[in-house]
């Protein structure tokens, strides 16, 4: 006599199998954490980890911001004024809305930095932290942006011990309805050209009028 599996039990087994397949697919899709800085394709999926740093959610970032004990470091690039514009052309930078109170160090999240850009980053962190290498620094850019990952990793290499990486960045912040403020780059930004920045990443553009 053939024994039949009851329908509810069969459905349960199918559900367990589907969950197992989904879990395996998610693991296969996970981005591994590299040993070195990312030097290309900056706007793509990022790892879930950064060795030596704390990875935080939007909710955690908001709580840290409200507490006021950390400095938020924005590293979104800003395009330089193009060369060769007609005389009299007015160049208007695209406004950057970021987390209020942030220090914006544009172009410092590339995988490779010219010396002047690295000095700008180093001095910017020293000023932001008040010379305290134990000060909590929260690095961000946009979602799926390796530049904040690179910058946080670079800060760790410079000896900062309390580094947090906020991978959802200003995208997650805005989606949560949290306050934003128009930002300006920190003082001392070098005169930008391809030799003083790194590989191009068209994340922030301006407009010529």
Q: What's the helix and strand layout?
A:
Blueprint: H1 7-29, E1 54-55, H2 58-67, E2 70-74, E3 91-92, E4 96-98, E5 103-104, H3 115-129, E6 136-140, H4 146-157, E7 163-165, H5 169-175, E8 181-183, E9 207-208
Parallel strand pairs: 1-7, 2-5, 2-6, 6-7
Antiparallel strand pairs: 3-9, 4-8
Structure description:
The protein has 209 residues and is an alpha/beta fold. It has one domain (54-208): 3-Layer(aba) Sandwich (Oxidized Rhodanese, domain 1). It is built from 5 helices and 9 strands; from the N terminus they run αβαββββαβαβαββ. It has helices at residues 7-29, 58-67, 115-129, 146-157, 169-175, and strands at residues 54-55, 70-74, 91-92, 96-98, 103-104, 136-140, 163-165, 181-183, 207-208. The strands form 3 sheets. A 5-stranded parallel beta sheet has the order 1-7-6-2-5, sandwiched between helices. A two-stranded antiparallel ribbon has the order 3-9. A two-stranded antiparallel ribbon has the order 4-8. Helix 4 (146-157) links the parallel strand 6 and strand 7.
């Amino acid at each position: 006599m053939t024994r039949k599996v009851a329908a509810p039990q069969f459905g349960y087994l199918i559900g367990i199998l589907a969950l197992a397949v989904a879990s395996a697919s998610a693991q296969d899709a996970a981005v591994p954490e590299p040993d070195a800085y990312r030097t290309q394709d900056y706007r793509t999926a990022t790892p879930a980890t950064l060795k030596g740093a704390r990875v935080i959610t939007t909710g955690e970032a908001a709580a840290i911001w409200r507490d006021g004990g950390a400095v938020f470091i924005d590293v979104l690039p800003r395009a330089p004024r193009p060369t060769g514009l007609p005389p009299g052309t007015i160049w208007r930078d695209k406004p950057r809305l970021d987390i209020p109170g942030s220090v914006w160090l544009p172009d410092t999240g590339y995988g490779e930095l010219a010396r002047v850009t690295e000095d700008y980053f180093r001095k910017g962190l020293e000023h932001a932290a008040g010379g305290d290498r134990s000060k909590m620094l929260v690095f961000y850019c946009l979602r799926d942006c390796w530049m904040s990952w690179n910058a946080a990793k670079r800060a760790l290499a410079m000896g900062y011990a309390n580094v947090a990486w906020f991978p959802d960045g200003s995208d997650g912040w805005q989606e949560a309805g949290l306050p934003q403020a128009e930002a300006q780059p920190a003082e001392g930004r070098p005169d930008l050209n391809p030799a003083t920045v790194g590989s191009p990443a068209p994340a922030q553009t301006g407009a010529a009028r």
